[in-house]
Amino acid sequence: MKIIIVGAYAIGTHLAKLLSRNNQEITLIDENEENLERLRSDFDLLTIHASPTCIRTLKEARVSSTDLFIAVTPNEYQNITACSLAHAFGAKKTVARIDNCEYLRPENEEVFKQMGISSLIYPEELAAKDIANGLKMSWVRQRWDVHNGVLVMLGIKLRESCEILNQPLKDLCGPDDPYHVVAIKRGQDTIIPGGNDELKLYDVAYFMTTRNYIPYVRKIVGKEHYVDVKNVMIMGGGNTTVRAIQSIPDYMEVKIIERDEHRCEQLNEILDDSHTLVINADGRDVSLLVDEGIRNTQAFVAMTGNAETNILACLTAKRMGVRKTVAMVDNIDYIDMAESFDIGTIINKKAIAASHIYQMMLDANVHNVRFLTATNADVAEFIPVPGSKVTRKPVKDLGLPAGMTIGGLVRNGEGQLVSGNTQIEAGDTVMVFCNNLGMTKIEKFFI
């Protein structure tokens, strides 16, 4: 597949690194020579130092034969213009990074399609949804709902109170059991488990279950004593904070701590509601946090623009008794460190945005792809077409590649777990888990 990426910044650089490892033909365009130089020597890709909205540049990059054109510079107008030009010159699919949530409204979708833009990516909106989902369950590291929650994936850190440690999964996750363990993060390793694998203390285990059995999973992992989140303290008042607050339930009371006085005034205008209080202060001031009631707060979210500050702030909140902490960590290199500190949920906008863009590379009907933060595993929703390989035999006879498992499916609006005897049907929404960037090997089962 031929892919052009415009913008060697956070998301573009991350995508270029991922896709170049996957043997794709990558061309990276940027107006900043230094940005390109950092990537040129280490990765197998072509770089062009030029304006992405220059017609000569696009022709030089052979945009007419491009399968996927990705514009992710910090300038949304440049991204939209570049995608429109790329489409006009023959690019098959285009995706533009934006900063205006108004563009995402359903009534505007057709407008952008007419402009030649296949998909819009607003990283702050995507991250905000992850944060809001995480706050709904104080005992969960990551949560992913399929079809409005009829099927749910839960990433959970296992502590001493977990009652299913050190037992083969074949004895725990049979055809009649209400959950499957679909991935395990253990230290630096990610395991797509088989029947003989066991859950160990301090693993992060990823469970697939249905909505009705979430309380059961909570019980067996020993998290019933975790209180539900009703009070949230957020450090940093950027766009992601605004979108997260607009997504969380009304029963949660929120305090935002923001250093910039002018931004505080803006937040008070944007968030004109009764359950949000904006405080003009420095969230690194421990005495201030105490005065504002952090010891009685169920969740602390650090979303400044500095990863180190966010990690340290969450560590401080943990020491002060906050059970649920969330840190925005935009530097990929810091994610393993943050995970080793056991700070809780880690949000990385680059990885979230890259997940949504990556699904456009696949030929199969894929509704969602997610790179699980801090793991080397992916999860995706595939919809098989009539006659596809995955519909011809029961799951146990499909010959699925090593490092892949099917966790569940949605059929006629109902979620159900998958066992070896399950017969997948065309039109099902099938949840697939695999080792990092293995989706291209799996899609052949669904087309």
Automatic annotation (TrEMBL):
Residues 1-123 form the RCK N-terminal domain. InterPro entries: K_uptake_TrkA, NAD(P)-bd_dom_sf, RCK_C, RCK_C_sf, RCK_N, Trk_Ktr_HKT_K-transport. Keywords: Ion transport, NAD, Potassium, Potassium transport, Transport. GO terms for cellular component: plasma membrane. It comes from the Bacteria. GO terms for molecular function: potassium ion transmembrane transporter activity. Residues 141-223, 367-447 form the RCK C-terminal domain. This is Trk system potassium uptake protein TrkA. It comes from Hoylesella enoeca.
